[in-house]
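Subject: sequence -> structure tokens, single chain

Hey, anyone have a minute? Need the predicted structure for the following. Not urgent.
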Amino acid sequence: MDARHTAVRSGTAFRQAQVSAGRPLRFGVLGCAGIARRRVLPAMAAARDVELVAVASRSAARAAGTAARHGARPVTGYAALLEDPAVDAVYVPLPAALHAEWVAAALAAGKHVLAEKPLTCDPAQTRALLAGARRRGLVLRENVMFVHHGQHAVVRKLIADGEIGELRAVHARFGVPALPEDDIRHDPALGGGALADIGLYPVRAAVHLLGTGLAVAGAVLSRGAGHRVETAGAALLRRADGVTAQLTFGMDHAYGSCYEVWGSRGRVTVDRAFTPPADHRPALVVEGERGTRTLRLPAEDQVSAVLTDFARAVRAGETTAADEAATLAQADLLHAIRAAAENGPAPASGAGQAADGRAADGSHQRRLSRYQATVPASPAAKSVRGR
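Reply:
Had a minute. Here:
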């Protein structure tokens, strides 16, 4: 172990001891993305066990405006924030294609990391980052918020208690209305596309409810006219015992966010499953041999739940084996769904390029390189480019 690695681990242990002693976990934020401004930063500012101390942007004005709304300090440039000893943990809401680079840089700087989903665009990079966090004794989490909402624990208990008999199938769907044309989720160079941004939710729901032993039986990805990324898709997953998960998703749809767990003697239906507002009171519909009933649950803020759990994990210095297993299963399934869709039946005559819109002529990498060139990188960040 080199001297720098030893120093990083020593500093991490010191900061963790301070957090364990009662001080809030001090967060810095890399970027001013919409999800950060709308949901995560307000939750950080209101939380008791975390403190939002700094917000970084490539634009000094954007950093100042975002930080001022939450009583934080603005920082120009992502690398400068990572060098700040007053930051214990980093939240990364950057475009998906930049996650691997900046998560690696944050870990190298000795920071715990909460990264927006997907953690990376490649399962091998996801494995490497999780392994790196373990070696450094750091907590690395992918911000899949819905799994922290209590309604899903209730569903899992209903299944475990035999309320619907033996499991037969899960049906899950998530769709959102058309996004603005300049939204980064339309840009293949930045990791855009419906599969990673929208399809991830029903995929993770299948993992959450059925476990990690799932395989892809078939998949379809489709592109709306004029788009360079897939805007809709569907997948069929199967478990070794024959239980299936049918998933549909898209980003040019009437809003839909629900799943149904179907058993041999009944079913459970969950609406507003993935992005419920903090004041939403879930109403789980349970159909079984005793008839149909609705379980009304208290409202919860799943964003606050994520932050509370993250801070608890840092304080406990715990391993994250269960969370890692689900993250890796999700990453592998997303990769396999894309592969199944691209290697399926031949497209109709006159069809365009591959379903994900990533051109084979190298334009994807050129666009990403142009974007990266505008982001000042730390030495640690530079070391992971081109992986």
